[in-house]
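Q: My labmate handed me this sequence with no annotations at all. I'd like to see what the chain might look like in three dimensions before we decide whether it's worth expressing. Could you predict it?
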Amino acid sequence: MNIYIIFITLATLIFLLLVVDFFLFFKIKKLKKKRQHCNNLIELDEAIIPFIIRAEGFKNFSSEEKKKYVLTLARQYAQNRNIKVDYTTISDRIDYFVEFCKSVNLFTGKKCDCDCHN
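A: Here is what I predict for the chain of 118 residues:
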């Protein structure tokens, strides 16, 4: 067998392996970034729930004032933990949890002490 054919074959294989490694390196890096973002959102969700519970104890606050209170606490929490998340994402998460709580309370027939069912 000719030495040049073996050399070209090996060089081609090495080049292909380098291209695949290069592609996988950036793909894995992107997936790790997405994973970190998801973990940050989960951490933020776990922090938002106690904020909502605390806000529901404020009898003299309107629903909008309670949401602003929770939003302020959640933004401070995200800033203190270096969680990069925008205002609308936090607002949407708060709305999701409030709606979820309302649907659970309606389903179980249990009324909470808040004024959200009026």
